[in-house]
């Protein structure tokens, strides 16, 4: 089992920045690729970003590429999502997830999920 707890979500103005954090506990953190997903009201959950077990490889959704950065600290069992140039469309509940599969970009390929953290972007 892996337990994931997200934090850092809050209200931010459009154009602003926010850093989300996810703390993992349980099994060896570095055995898992880590991803961020988001879900806005009335919309399906969507992939945001994923980082490899080592932290060397990352992939992003086109909608956030160039604005968001995912990174991890395996020594601290943490994964982060740095969000810059935020837009109202970025408002959603953001979820951290862990996958045994390398660089998974589909929700069903993830094995563990956090409870989510709310990001609100005012225009």
Counting DSSP H or I runs of 4 or more residues, the number of helices is 0
Distance between the termini: 40 Å
Shape: globular
Helicity range of the residues?
A: under 10%
Structure write-up:
With 123 residues, this protein is mostly beta strands. Helices cover 0% and strands 50% of the residues. It contains no helices and 11 strands. The chain has strands at 2-7, 11-13, 18-26, 33-39, 46-51, 58-60, 68-73, 78-83, 92-99, 112-113, 117-122. Strands 2, 4, 5, 6, 9, 10 and 11 form a 7-stranded mixed sheet that branches. A 4-stranded antiparallel sheet has the order 1-3-8-7, with no helix packed on it. Strand 4 and strand 5 (46-51) form a beta hairpin. The radius of gyration is 13 Å and the shape is globular. The N and C termini lie far apart (40 Å).
Short description:
The chain is an all-beta fold and 123 residues long.
Task: Describe the secondary structure blueprint for this structure.
Elements: E1 2-7, E2 11-13, E3 18-26, E4 33-39, E5 46-51, E6 58-60, E7 68-73, E8 78-83, E9 92-99, E10 112-113, E11 117-122
Parallel strand pairs: 2-11
Antiparallel strand pairs: 1-3, 3-8, 4-5, 4-9, 5-6, 7-8, 9-10, 9-11
């Amino acid at each position: 089992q892996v337990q994931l707890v997200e934090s850092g979500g809050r209200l931010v103005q459009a154009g602003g920045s926010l850093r989300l954090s996810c703390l993992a506990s349980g099994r060896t953190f570095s055995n898992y690729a880590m991803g961020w997903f988001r879900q806005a009201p009335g919309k399906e959950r969507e992939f945001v970003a994923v980082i490899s077990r080592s932290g060397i490889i990352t992939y992003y959704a086109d909608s956030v590429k160039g604005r968001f950065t995912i990174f991890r600290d395996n020594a601290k069992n943490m994964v982060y999502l740095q969000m810059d140039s935020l837009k109202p469309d970025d408002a959603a509940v953001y979820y951290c997830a862990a996958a045994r599969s390398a660089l998974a970009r589909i929700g069903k390929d993830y094995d563990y999920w956090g409870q989510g953290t709310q990001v609100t972007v005012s225009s």
